[in-house]
Amino acid sequence: MTETTAPEHRNEVVLVGEVTAPPEERTLADGRVIVTFRLDVVRDPEVGTGRDSFECTAHAARLRRSLAAWQTGDLVEVSGAIRRRFYRVGAGSRPFMVVEVERARRLSSPASRRRRPA
Fold this sequence. Notes:
The structure is a single chain. The protein has about 120 residues and is mainly beta. It has a single domain, classed as CATH 2.40.50.140. About 10% of the residues lie in helices and about 55% in strands. The protein contains two helices and six strands, in the order ββββαββα. Strands 1-3-4-6-5 form a five-stranded mixed barrel. The longest helix has 7 residues, at about 60-65. It is globular and about 50 Å long.
């Protein structure tokens, strides 16, 4: 009799898109410091129509320092996992999804794209 194994669960995401506002450092109620930013990704790059917007967070100190240099319009690549979070609304709470960033790099900035020869 052969033993089969179930596929391993995975929660991985890689996004390449444009930063729509400078990253912002926040201190959570429990004292942890995070950086948050919003990333817009074009749905169909060949046509350029439609965008999806993702709320992203980063916890690691080294990553937070790196993200601090990002500006609106930077083209970046991030990888990490999708997480479900909650925020309080009156006596209840509401869920929302974020991309918890584990790795990130800036691919280009608006200024560097303008300098490229045609």
